[in-house]
Write a structure and sequence with these properties.
This protein has an eight-stranded parallel barrel with strand order 1-2-3-5-6-7-9-10, surrounded by four helices. Strand 8 (238-240), helix 12 and strand 9 (262-271) form a beta-alpha-beta unit. It has a single domain (35-279, 292-377), classed as TIM Barrel (Alpha-Beta Barrel). It contains 14 helices and ten strands. The chain has helices at 2-31, 36-40, 53-56, 61-70, 82-85, 95-106, 124-127, 132-149, 174-179, 182-194, 210-225, 246-258, 303-322, 365-377; strands spanning 46-51, 73-76, 110-113, 117-118, 156-161, 199-204, 232-235, 238-240, 262-271, 327-332. It is an alpha/beta fold. Bound molecules: ligand G3I. The site of ligand G3I has 11 residues, from loops.
Length: 379
């Protein structure tokens, strides 16, 4: 009798599991319908990805196939940063940036260039610039040469990246030290003159947080009052599964939109690893020693945590859809979990899972949860 009951139980379990499996594979098939993310959100905002040198060169066949299927906007993760594109005072290296722009054109994508001015990843010679006059000449050459080269081909520029401290004051960069805050107006005006059709953005992390947001709004208002053309603000969106600032994100969309700006989420990812220092944002100079406790999922990402991440991504995209009229673009900082900079920051050599595709380019539960939002919305 006991063994009969056990057999019955096993049979029921097998049927249930088969049902689940069928449902899961149906969900997977639905989620991978032709066109993917970019198609499902085509009436809402661009869906972008930051791409590395390997992906620009289409050296990885899986990445090369996934990129145009899922994304309709690209940003170069590193190759247009000052130290790579303008390494010597009179030398520029356009090899990879040219390929990046050509790849975007091949796929008819919204091409975003990143970043014209950033205190990090600067060429060392820029740190030696002594005074305002010399810096102005350096910036003029930098911007005229680079923006001029891609005139009419790049859709938007991250003109200034991360110029603010957490309290909303201006960061002590080589540009601020030599020129004072006048550098901000100068670079936006130079960029606008070099390519009048390109959109120009201010891009930063944590500018959804109240103090930094207030500083950002004050800075943008000053620029607007000085007649500067600024089309959008880039909220980077380096957030954690431990708590996304949904309310601050919503307030930020409303407050930046009230300035007449389009809002872009420019570097979206969601770390799932411990962060005992309560670091927020993406200050690349921060680095801490590792330990097994700090790297809890070296081999695989537990299913329960995947579901937790799916819920968080869904709630975030729900918010994005609610404010779709003000949002121009949502760009992920990397294509799959294996590519993410969060495997190396703020501790080197960890295994993180912050994006919508796993290391094998397979869609994760978070991908499906985001796609489902639009399916639910259909009549
Ligand atoms: O190019 C060298 C290569 O020659 C060398 O062999 C290799 C060895 O480590 O390092 C390579 O440089 C690395 C570079 O990425 C390219 O892979 C740097 O060490 C590394 O620090 C650099 O990190 C990038 C970081 O910005 C600093 O530029 C990350 O990939 C990139 O994701 C990250 O992106 C920034 C955004 O631009 C601005 N907002 C924050 C965001 C995250 O930090």
């Amino acid at each position: 009798m006991k063994s009969f009951k056990l057999i019955q139980l096993l049979a029921i379990t097998a049927v249930l599991l088969a049902g689940c499996k069928e449902e899961t594979s149906q969900q997977e098939a639905d989620a991978q319908e032709p066109g993917g993310l970019k198609t499902i959100f085509k009436d809402d905002f661009y869906i972008g990805a930051a791409i590395s040198a390997t992906q620009i060169e289409e050296a990885d066949a899986k990445a090369a196939a996934l990129l145009p299927k899922e994304f309709n906007s690209i940003t170069p993760e590193n190759v247009m940063k000052w130290m790579y594109i303008h390494p010597g005072r009179d030398s520029f290296d356009f090899a990879l940036p040219d390929k990046f722009v050509a790849l975007g054109e091949k796929h008819g994508m919204n091409i975003i260039a990143h970043a014209l001015l950033w205190h990090s990843q600067l060429a060392p010679w820029v740190e030696q610039v002594k005074d305002a006059k010399e810096m102005e000449a350096v910036l003029t050459n930098h911007i005229n040469t680079i923006v001029g080269r891609y005139k009419g081909r790049v859709h938007g520029w991250d003109v200034v990246n991360e110029a603010l401290n957490e309290d909303g004051t201006l960061r002590e960069t080589p540009f601020l030290k030599t020129m004072g805050e006048a550098y901000l107006e100068k670079v936006f005006k130079l960029a606008a003159a070099a390519d009048p059709a390109a959109e120009l953005y201010y891009n930063d992390y944590n500018i959804e947080q109240p103090a930094k947001r207030a500083g950002c709004i004050a800075m943008i208002k000053k620029l607007q009052a000085a007649g500067v053309k600024i089309d959008g603000v880039g909220i980077q969106g380096h957030w954690s599964i431990a708590g996304l600032p949904y309310e601050d994100i919503e307030k930020s969309i409303q407050e930046y939109a009230a300035l007449g700006l389009k809002v872009h989420f420019t570097e979206l990812d969601m770390t799932v690893l411990p962060n005992p220092w309560d670091l927020k944002g993406a200050e690349v100079s921060q680095n801490f020693p590792g330990s097994p406790f700090m790297n809890p999922y070296p081999d695989s990402f537990p299913v329960a945590r995947q579901e937790e991440q799916a819920v968080a991504y869904q709630r975030l995209f729900e918010l994005f859809l609610k404010h779709r009229d003000h949002i121009e673009r949502v760009t992920f900082w990397g294509m799959n979990d294996g590519h993410s900079w969060l495997n190396g920051w703020p501790i080197k050599d960890r295994t993180n899972y912050p994006l919508l595709f796993d290391r094998n380019f397979e869609p994760k539960p978070a991908y499906r949860s985001v796609m489902e939002l639009k399916k639910k919305a259909k009549p």
